[in-house]
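W.,

You were right to be curious about this one. When I first looked at the sequence I had no strong expectations either way, so I just let the prediction run and decided to look at it fresh. Below is the sequence, 345 residues in total, followed by the output.
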Amino acid sequence: MNGIRRNLRLFSFSLLVLPLLAGGFAYREALPGYRYQFPRDHFEHEDFRTEWWYYTGNVTDVNGKRFGFELVFFREGEHHDTANASAWAVQDIYLAHAALTDAGGKQFWYDQRLNRAGPGIAGASFEKQRIWNGNWSAQWNGENQTLDAVTGHFHFHLDLHPSKPFAIEGEDGVSQKAEGPGRASHYVSFTRLEVSGTINSSRVKGSAWMDHEWFTEQLAGDQVGWDWFSVQLDNRTELMLFELRRKDGSIDPYSSGTFVDAQGRAVHLRRDDFTLRPLVKWHAYPIEWSVKIPSLSIDVTAKAVLPDQELRGTTNYWEGAVDYSGTHRGVGYLEMTGYDRPVHF
């Protein structure tokens, strides 16, 4: 989930291809009291096992054609064998996903790639101010970021400029996901990024969201997946909400969220502060939801701009562009995991 985004995020693939620990290396846990240091914390944290940088956005071209885009970089620690000096030694594995939604044309494309760092093939580097996997990259210049991705079906070059300060999600430095020490992540969001650039050579403008999380373990054994919402409302406020689903069908009390006001101030939301209710399904996935936050007088419906925005691979998940309407209007993204099989960390 993004949030767990993200925000959480999809590294169940790693359980199939990588050992969790090797060579006796012990990863750090995400614990309360973490002291963030920026800009350093925008980049790699190799002392934590799992990390992701998650970009999603909604843009239109000069003719009003609507696109949703996604570019995600994952890092998964395999082991740290300092005795092996080879550039091809597997220390970290890097996965990346790119996706494009053409709302008017009712098309959805996605691609992925998996690489070791090798001699610069993939990585994340504070020194280089860059996160990359092959020719897919997020290049930073201060807090401005430039995204590049080329696939067989689409390509984009997008410049992102934050119009608000980034928000630190959760409380006391962690976004808690389950009972117990370390069942959490360190989690930072840019909730309002102004976008300009090109998609398939067409000029586009719009807004984007970026989540960055790092952790070693998050989910508990009875949690099977999550539903994550990013919300950018027309009144210049934003919401991040996620709920964690249990095996018995109940919602975990560690589900939470954040409200960011028009001035950029972030307020933590607990599970009891909001309700998320599925309304309409496409196959197993709810693609229309009721979202209510009584204390903020928010009562909106989230509706997918295209029903089929499922990314299919080792683990399938749905992530796509949505519209919000009701007491407020806006755009955002919705991520749903664990509907085909439980997600594990």
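Here's what jumped out at me. The first strand starts at residue 50 and ends at 61. And, maybe more interesting for your project: DSSP finds two helices and 23 strands in the chain.

Coffee later to discuss?

I.
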